[in-house]
Every structure is written in C-alpha cells, then in structure tokens.
Write a structure and sequence with these properties.
- The complex is a heterodimer of chains A (281) and B (276).
- Chain A contains eleven helices and no strands.
- Chain A has helices spanning 25-29, 37-60, 71-80, 82-114, 118-133, 140-147, 151-175, 179-187, 192-229, 235-244, 248-276.
- In chain B, helix 2 (100-111) runs parallel beside helix 4.
- Chain B has 276 residues and is of the alpha/beta class.
- The radius of gyration of chain B is 18 Å and the shape is globular.
- In chain B, a hairpin with a 2-residue loop joins strand 1 (9-22) and strand 2.
- Chain B has a six-stranded mixed β-sheet, with helices on both faces. In chain B, strands 2-1-4-5 form a four-stranded antiparallel β-sheet, with helices on one face.
- Chain B has helices spanning 53-61, 100-111, 117-126, 142-154, 172-189, 200-206, 240-259, and strands at 9-22, 25-38, 42-46, 68-73, 76-77, 85-88, 160-164, 192-196, 209-213, 220-225.
- Classes of the chains: A mainly alpha (281), B alpha/beta (276).
- At the A-B interface, helix 8 and helix 9 of A face helix 1, strand 6 and helix 2 of B.
C-alpha cells in the first residue's frame, strides 16, 4: 500500500496543454485553417508567382542547368525518370518502415516501463539523451563494415535514430501523471494495469503522437543519409549518383520526392493526432 | 429533528491517526479523530486550512490507509476502495478524452459490470444534462462538469458519497444551485453523504451535523447539529439561528487559526511533498 500512502495532492491542474517537450501537439493542431475561396486564390497565386518567377528569372539570367535547373525541367525529369526512381523509393520506404517499426516499438515499450520506476529512469536517461543527440549517421560506416551494403545497416540506423525520439517524447507523456485522475480510478478499485491503460496511456497519447512524428522524420533523414554513405540503392544513393553525373533535374526530382514523403508523414500524424488527441488542443 | 436519519451508524471513524513521512520529518496530519456517521445522514466537515479534512475523507474512502485507528463501514473495516463508497473530487475530475457517456461508464468499465442506463438517464435528467452524453468535458461549463461528476459518482448506487470540496471552484450562484441539487438527490436516494467544504453556509444548508476540526494535527473539535427539516429553502439561511450558528462556527475556526497564525506550516492546505 505504499502508493496509497502518498499525500493526496491535486489542487492544480497538471494537464495544462502546451508546455510539454520540445515540440508539442498544439503547435501541430493549431495550424492555420483555410477559410475562404479568396484565401485559396491568394495561396495559389503566391505559389504561381514564386514558381513562375523562378522559372523566368533562371531563364532570363541564363543560369546553367548544373547550377540550378528550372522548375519545369525538374517536373519533366520527375515524370520521365519516375519509373527509374520508383524502385529506389521502394527501398527507402522499406528501410524507413522497417527501422521505424522496430525503433518506435522498442521506444514506446521502454518509455512506458521506465516511467513506472523513477529510479531506473534516472539511470537510463543519460544514455537515451546520448542516443538522441548523437547523429546515428555517424555509426553507419561501422554498421556497413559489420552488416554489408544491404538493408540491415540502414534499418538499424533508422531504428537507432527514431527509437530514442519516440521514447523521449512518449516518456514525457507518461510522466504527466494526474494524481487526481489516478485517485478517481483507484476509488473504483482499478488495478495498476487498468490505471495504465485507462488513465496513463490516454493522457500520454498526444505526446506519443508527437514522438512518432519526430521519430519518423528523423528516421527518413537517417535512411537517406545512410544510403548516401554506401550501397547501390535507395533515394540517398540516387542523390549522390545524380549529382556525380551532374543530372541536376533528376537530382531535384529526388529532393522533391523526399520533401513530399516528409509532408505525407507530417500530415498523417497530424490527422491521427486530430482524431485521437484533439481533447488537449 | 435530524431528518431522514436512522439510528444505525453507517460509517464509524475510530481514533483515526495519520502520520505522513515527509522529507522534513514526520507530520501528524490527523490525531485520534473519532466520528460516527449515521445511515442517511449528511455530515459536513469544516476546519482551518491544513487541518487534515481531506486526509480524513481519503481514509474513509479507503484510498489511503491510516497510521492508527480504523474506519468501519456497516461495522466492517475499510481496507481499500469499496464498491459502496463513491468519491466526488475537488475539480470535476472528468477524463477529457472521453465524452460524458463514456465518463459515466468509466466506473462500470473498471468494475466490469453493466451500467444501469435507466437510472443514469434519470440522474442526467435530474441534473439537467439529458442529451449531453456525446459532449466532451472541454465543451461544458464548470457547473455542468461538476454535475456530470455527481452523476458519475451516483451512477453505481453507492450507499456512501464522500465529497471533497466539490463546489469550491464554482461561482456562488452555481454553488447554491449545486447545493439544492445535492439535497434533491438526497431526498430521492437517502445516500449517506460526508462533505468537506470551506463554506460554512454550504455546510449548514446541506448538513444534519457540521463537524469542526481543529488545526493540525486535526482533531474533532466540536459537532453542531443543524435542526432544520428538509427540503430546506435558501430562506433558512437568513434566519437568526443560522446566523448565530454560522458565527459560532466561524469564531471557532478563526479563533483557533489566529492563535496558530505565526506557524507558517498551518497556512498551507496540504503538505508540499510529492511522492512518486
């Protein structure tokens, strides 16, 4: 009954939104909403001016293609070379999903377990911080030495990059205990497991989504970086290959695919957060 | 005179003593508190800040143990959370990620029993929240949230309702409304109610007896019967008897508090130690 002897203390609301972690869901969910047709028109107009202006300026100053290709050339390359790039996109996605699945799973479990034991948390935190702050790309040459030029070193690097990100954010979420809500559950006779699934986990959910988002973006960066280091496939490999052949339209086509991938990941977790964690915004 | 009160004790607190082990040493929160609450009675506990009211109530609920003494419910010792006892907390304490219906279903989910939706609908009607089942707590006013919390607390028909300063965060009009609501519900259910409050008016309006606690270490200093028949109207609050009773209780609390004023430890409501 050691837990039950804790001094009841729940005067203030501990679930104040907006002050958790480096990134938070409120920044994610409070994005500007598009209101009217006029706004849409303005947005499209600006985009047309920016892209069109770039096209015209590059044409006017006769900037060579190997310095900066025109937007039109990039789009042409994207369409015509897509069949060539697509398999590499597939490889990158395999590395990203594989590594992220492993990293996120381990990170989530570790966060859930470690936050239950404050002492263990104190011991583990420095190592997690080390993993978060060290660029996992630094390990890729070593991993290649050990595992060769296949998927393995890349998947491991992605897992190592995304896992700690997921863990550190999820742990912040799991640490936000509201003693009042736990007391409520206990007053109905809830078990430790019930308290975890019905109070702690839902309270942590918004931060878990933030962790998954940041982790997957970090995973993408690491996957592409690892592909640049070595091996014969993947979008990162295409980047080094196209730039060495001075195929700049193709190079930028790959960059565009990568940005779209990043945006897709962001939007996916944004929508997920909106659906399941909107109560906090 | 004590309306609706039978002679059987529902809750008995026997020499309840609670010591907190804080970083700055042991802290005696309540010291040999004894109290008998009859079946169907409404008892309020008032006292200066930090006198251990909440500690006493939490001990009654079985949410935390006592260092010495015991709490009996229907003659049997309370050793942990009990299906017959329901708590209403300081803030409404609704789960913000669940809508009202899911919030009210929460105790049943934990207990693994089927909710009696006919009874719950009746309660929701009574508190004026019919049709609000799909709303989320964030969409409701403080008063509505606390009413929903009241429905949740009564949803599984507990025989004892423990209320820990339930309306402290509400404005005075909403508070009066809530007080009338509690009395109305009590008239229906005759649930035994123990209420902690900072408002002497609220205590007098609602209770059969008002228990005054001394400053820390909390002891039962005095017990004042409130001899008014129910249903009471707010008009009784303007009578001389209530006026005198209010003053007497206020005097008692303020008097004891003033004598202890130089001690800063009594000016905080709870010891500021966080465990876990």
């Amino acid at each position: 009954m050691s837990k039950s002897d804790a001094i009841p203390q729940f005067k203030g609301k501990s679930d104040s939104p907006g002050d958790v972690g480096i990134t938070n869901m409120s920044a994610l969910t409070s994005g500007p909403g598009i209101k009217s047709a006029r706004e849409v028109l303005a947005i499209v107009l600006v985009a047309v001016i920016v892209v069109g202006g770039m096209e015209l300026l590059l044409d006017f100053f006769e900037v060579p293609q190997y310095v900066l290709p025109k937007p039109s050339e990039i789009v042409v390359a994207l369409v015509s070379d897509f069949p060539l790039i697509a398999p590499h996109l597939g490889h990158t996605l395999v590395e990203l999903f594989g590594g992220f699945a492993i990293g996120a799973t381990v990170g989530l479990i570790l966060a859930a377990v470690i936050t239950q034991f404050p002492f263990a948390e104190k011991i583990v935190t420095p190592y997690i911080l080390l993993l978060v702050t060290t660029p996992m790309l630094a390990l890729v040459p070593l991993l290649i030495l050990r595992f060769g030029f296949g998927y393995e070193p890349r998947i491991i690097a992605v897992a190592l990059a995304s896992g700690p990100m997921v863990m550190i954010n999820a742990a912040t979420g799991f640490r936000r205990v509201d003693q009042g809500k736990i007391a409520l559950a206990r007053s109905y006779g809830a078990s430790t497991l019930q308290i975890f699934w019905k109070i702690r986990a839902p309270m942590a959910l918004p931060m878990i989504f933030v962790g998954l988002m940041v982790g997957s973006i970090f995973g993408l960066l690491t996957a592409v970086g690892a592909e640049m280091v070595g091996g014969g496939f993947g979008l990162g490999n295409r980047l080094t290959s196209y730039s060495s052949m001075i195929l700049m339209p193709q190079f930028f086509a790959v960059v565009m695919i990568l940005s779209m991938l990043g945006i897709l990941i962001y939007v996916f977790f944004f929508l997920l957060g909106k659906k399941y964690a909107s109560w906090e915004a | 005179m004590l309306a609706g009160q039978s002679k059987k004790p529902k809750l008995e607190v026997l020499n309840a003593t609670k010591v907190y082990n804080t970083r700055s040493g042991d802290l005696l929160a309540i010291d040999r508190c004894s109290l008998e609450i009859m079946e169907g009675e409404i008892v309020s506990i008032v006292g200066p800040s930090g006198c251990g009211k909440t500690t006493l109530l939490w001990s009654m609920s079985g949410l935390h143990g006592l260092s010495a003494g015991e709490v009996l419910l229907d003659g049997a010792p309370v050793s942990g959370p009990n299906a017959d006892i329901s708590m209403v907390f300081q803030d409404a304490n609704l789960l913000p990620w669940r809508n009202l219906a899911a919030n009210i279903n929460f105790p049943f989910e934990i207990k693994g029993v089927k909710p009696d939706w006919i009874w719950i609908d009746e309660l929701l009607n009574r508190v004026g929240l019919e049709g609000f089942g799909g709303r989320f707590p964030g969409e409701l006013s403080g008063g509505m949230q606390q009413r929903a919390a009241l429905v949740r607390a009564l949803s599984f028909k507990p025989s004892v309702l423990l209320m820990d300063e339930p309306f402290g965060a509400l404005d005075s009009f909403t508070r009066e409304e809530m007080n009338r609501l509690v009395e109305e519900i009590w008239l229906d259910t005759k649930t035994t109610i123990v209420l902690i409050t900072h408002s002497i008016e609220e205590a007098i309006f609602l209770s059969d007896r008002v228990v005054v606690m001394s400053p820390r270490p909390g002891r039962v200093a005095s017990i004042h019967p409130v001899p008014f028949a129910r249903p009471r109207s707010m008009e009784i609050m303007a009578t001389k008897e209530v006026f005198d009773l209010t003053n007497a209780i206020k005097q008692e609390i303020v008097g004891t508090q003033v004598s202890r004023y130089p001690n800063p430890a009594t000016s905080e409501d709870q010891p500021t130690q966080v465990t876990g």
